[in-house]
Automatic annotation (TrEMBL):
Pathway: Glycan metabolism; heparin biosynthesis; Glycan metabolism; heparan sulfate biosynthesis. Gene3D superfamilies: P-loop containing nucleotide triphosphate hydrolases (3.40.50.300). Keywords: Disulfide bond, Glycoprotein, Golgi apparatus, Hydrolase, Membrane, Multifunctional enzyme, Signal-anchor, Transferase, Transmembrane, Transmembrane helix. Residues 281-485 form the Heparan sulphate-N-deacetylase deacetylase domain. It is a single-pass type II membrane protein. Disulfide bonds join 787-797. This is [heparan sulfate]-glucosamine N-sulfotransferase. Residues 576-821 form the Sulfotransferase domain. Its EC number is 2.8.2.8. The lineage of its organism: Eukaryota, Metazoa, Ecdysozoa, Arthropoda, Hexapoda. It is an enzyme of class 2 (transferase). It comes from the Eukaryota.
Length: 853
């Protein structure tokens, strides 16, 4: 059993060490001492098939289908969050009268089906229930369900259609696990969770068939009398499928009990035959920031350093390779009293016992430096200090004070790090600054790997147990199944941030980490180890290659980010709206007309792409936010709004997500013309620019090229055809932005009556007073389109490459494209009506009516 007893206060006789094991409070002026003991004699071993993999060849994808009552229901949110934390693919469906599509061709779409309310599964109409059960049997898909609380208390009620009886709305305590269950993998059995279990709405199961096996037991939460037999009550049950050939796990309570979260993950692994198994390997690194920084009276003394080394040694017996990672700012060495200075000396006498990383020499936040020379000089002072004191300087890892400059990115920091320290790895808790910490992610910028950094609940000011927010109970709750425990369980790689002050005073960090590691050993089969930061980072991005690319967020959307952002930067240097394309629909003309407006300012032209920045959809994105903002210099006393036009944004797969992360309030303007004509115009455009493929193949040959054609030909075919799938691309944008932020222009009207279009845009952008385009645009009969009026009576038109007259498209190509775009155009009509656009463009009506049958 788990025996979690701490030292009792001799002056408080009410605390008895022979009481049933539970957490006893530590009293004032006593440092916490971990004393978590696990029974190790006859500990159940992990099942031989510890990864749950079988010979079974599953045809279903390793994806979870979650049925919820509403999108706001508590258990449903807990399930979804747990799947997100562990990066398990899933889909949520609000349970209705009909089932979602369960199969895809000859395959099952899902590996596990989860019901947040198992009663919804039991009460399904016969047609849907038979359909779902058939799917489960055919594709070997299992079910996980939760019995939700009910206002009605049930006693001995039978679950509909099953030889299983339940009692509901009970208060329980003292949970134990069935050590013989093959489900247990991550979870380690053999102990007891003593004390009341959370909630008073537990359901217990009465098992009347051999198909059922208990997974968890508990007892009634009531006083026991001497000699009274305590009957274990089944709270989680496994259905082996002997009754109807469908395996299930049914929980008698939700996921607010921490042990159920582990059992849920194990159930996913077991029921999916190992397809949804989490690795049992965990890497852990504990940083101690500011090892020499601290006020007199709060710094490490020799006794603290000795205890640091002693606890590290004990942890090493449980975590191979474990060493604390010490971050130093050399300027503050020997800034304590005489005893604390001796503590500094003792640390340096034991440099080989720790890992080390550089802070800043004077602990100033890097984003406050606007001069690279000054920043590198500061770093060099710290490097020289390290050389003088024998501190290793080759870890390739550094942490910025208060995470400044790492994210939001301060480019000077990355440059200086590479120049002085050859930094290859850092960590931050600011990307993307989500709570809880388990949701943080990594990215790579300027060839420096940025790892997500976790917190253990200790901060600079949490030095004494009596001052810990929420007291000892709150800290122990985090350790024993709570936030800190779950952070390590869910994250294969953990970097924890702590401070020097947490290791002196009441030594809360030593208590916290030793305790949580012991608790992990008690309740899980997780294998912890520590490796150097560079190896840690390489492992992280090998496991999560999709996190290599950053997603730049808006610093002004987070108060914390604004504090660690350079003072010379402003969100006024970000555009208010974007013209997103697609290409060859009139975006350059629109750009020109918008630039005439006195209240609208375009970006500074890019050398490589002329008026287009092309930030969100290409390699320019990796140049960072500073690079992007340099195209929008803030002018004093200016009231103009910025915009940019990049026609390649429209059909970029990642563009809507990136735009929304940085510019969630931005308005979007797109232009649509006949997709067949747009495809032909793009072909002629590339041909006019000397493209070899366009000059060697006819348009019809390009659009009919097979998937076995040479890659350059396929690429041209795709650039002709793919942007015209308007509904598909607009749906992607609308998954991030509401329709109110999207303005769709009929490209034909833009060409024939731009003044009307520009008046509508001004209304969309809410610009007042309106600019009179009538006096600034005039139709030029020689060019065949509207041009800017200059000097009163002359016109200035777009360059000679705009408004070219092309040979008519072949009829066979037009008919082929109208057939090709039929489904896309039909979907576009539905989309336009759905977002409130009733006036369907004439070109769209024509394309649909002229489509050959």
């Amino acid at each position: 059993m788990l025996n979690t007893i701490f030292k009792a206060d001799a002056n408080n006789p009410s605390i008895k060490l022979n009481e049933p094991p539970h957490i006893l409070m530590l009293h004032k002026n006593k440092r916490p001492e971990p004393n978590i003991r696990c029974s190790v004699i006859n500990r159940p071993r992990m099942p031989q098939n510890h990864d749950h993999k079988t010979e079974t060849r599953l045809r279903s994808d390793p994806k979870v289908l979650v049925f919820v009552e509403t999108i706001y229901s508590k258990v449903g949110r807990d399930i979804a969050e747990l799947l997100v934390y562990n990066r398990i693919k899933y889909k949520v469906e609000v349970f209705g009268k009909s089932l979602p599509v369960l199969t895809n061709l000859d395959k099952g779409r899902y590996g596990i089906i989860v019901f947040e309310d198992f009663n919804a599964y039991l009460q399904m109409d016969k047609w849907n229930r038979d359909l779902l059960d058939k799917y489960c049997r055919e594709y070997m898909v299992s079910v996980i369900g939760f019995i939700n609380p009910s206002e009605e208390t049930l006693v001995g009620a039978q679950l509909k259609g099953f030889p299983l009886f339940i009692h509901t709305n009970l208060r329980l305590k003292d949970a134990t696990l069935n050590a013989a269950s093959q489900i247990l993998r991550l979870t380690r059995p053999g102990e007891t969770v003593w004390g009341p279990l959370p909630g008073d709405d537990w359901t217990i199961f009465q098992l009347n068939h051999s198909t059922y096996e208990p997974l968890e037991w508990a007892h009634r939460n009531e006083e026991y009398h001497p000699g009274m037999i305590k009957t274990p009550l089944t709270t989680v049950v496994e259905d082996h499928g002997l009754y109807d050939n469908i395996q299930r796990v049914i929980f008698g309570s939700g996921l607010k009990f921490w042990l159920h979260r582990l059992l849920f993950l194990d159930s996913l692994s077991y029921l999916s035959h190992g397809q949804l198994s989490l690795s049992l390997e965990r890497l852990i690194l504990v940083d101690i920031d500011d090892i020499f920084v601290g006020e007199v009276g709060m710094r490490l003394k020799p006794s603290d350093v000795k205890e640091l080394i002693a606890v590290q040694s004990r942890i090493q017996s449980m975590v191979p390779g474990f060493k604390f990672n010490l971050g130093f700012s050399g300027k503050y060495f020997h800034h304590g009293d005489s005893e604390e200075d001796k503590g500094d000396d003792l640390l340096l006498e034991n440099t080989d016992k720790f890992m080390w990383f550089s802070h800043m020499w004077n602990h100033i936040q890097p984003h406050l430096y606007e001069n690279l020379t000054l920043l590198t000089e500061d770093m060099m002072l710290n490097k020289n200090f390290a050389k003088e004191k024998g501190i290793p300087i080759d870890s390739g890892y550094s942490v910025s004070p208060h995470h400044s400059g790492v994210y939001p990115v301060h480019e000077l920091l990355y440059t200086a790090w590479k120049k002085v320290w050859n930094i290859r790895v850092t960590s931050t808790e600011e990307y993307p600054h989500l709570r809880p910490a388990r949701l943080r992610r990594g990215f790579i910028h300027r060839d420096i790997m940025v790892l997500p950094r976790q917190t253990c609940g200790l901060f600079t000011h949490t030095m004494l147990i009596e001052r810990y927010p929420g007291g000892r109970d709150k800290l122990d709750e985090s350790i024993q199944g709570g936030e800190l425990f779950q952070t390590i369980v869910y994250n294969p790689i953990n970097i924890f941030m702590t401070h020097m002050s947490n290791y002196g005073n009441d030594r809360l960090a030593l208590y916290t980490f030793e305790s949580v590691i012991k608790f992990l050993q008690c309740w899980t089969n997780i294998k912890l180890r520590t490796v150097p930061p560079l190896q840690l980072a390489e492992t992280y991005f090998k496991n999560y290659p999709d996190e290599v690319d950053p997603v730049w967020g808006n610093p002004c959307g987070d108060t914390r980010h604004k504090k660690i952002w350079s003072n010379n930067k402003s969100c006024d240097s970000l555009p208010s709206f974007l013209v997103i394309g697609p290409q060859k629909t009139g975006t350059t003309a629109l750009y020109t007309f918008l630039s005439l407006h006195p209240a609208i300012t375009s970006n500074i032209p890019s050398r490589e792409t002329f008026e287009e920045i092309q930030f969100f959809n290409g390699n320019n994105y990796y140049k960072g936010l500073d690079w992007y903002m340099s195209f929008f210099p803030v002018e004093s006393n200016s009231t103009s709004i910025y915009f940019e036009k990049s026609a390649t944004y429209f059909d970029g797969d990642l563009v809507p997500k990136r735009v929304h992360a940085l510019l969630p309030s931005a308005k979007l303007v797109t232009i649509l013309i006949s997709p067949a004509k747009r495809a032909y115009s793009w072909y002629q455009h590339t041909k006019a620019h000397g493209d070899l493929i366009a000059n060697n193949y006819s348009f019809h040959q390009v659009i009919t090229a097979s998937d076995t054609a040479p890659k350059p030909l396929r690429d041209l075919r795709n650039r002709c055809l793919n942007p015209g799938k308007y509904s598909q691309h607009l749906e992607r944008w609308l998954s991030y932005f509401p329709p109110q932020q999207l303005h769709i222009i009929n490209g034909d009207v833009l060409k024939s009556n731009p003044i009307e279009v520009m008046d509508e845009i001004q209304k969309f952008l809410k610009i007042a007073p309106a600019f009179n385009y009538t006096t600034h645009l005039r139709f030029d009969p020689n060019k065949g389109f509207f041009c800017q009026i200059i000097n009163g009576d002359k016109t200035k038109c777009l360059g000679k490459n705009k408004g070219r007259q092309y040979p008519p498209m072949e009829e066979r190509s037009l008919k082929l494209l109208q057939r090709y775009y039929l489904s896309h155009n039909t979907a576009l009509v539905k989309l336009l009506k759905r977002i409130g656009i009733r006036n369907i463009p004439e070109w769209l009506k024509d394309d649909l009516s002229d489509t050959p049958t």
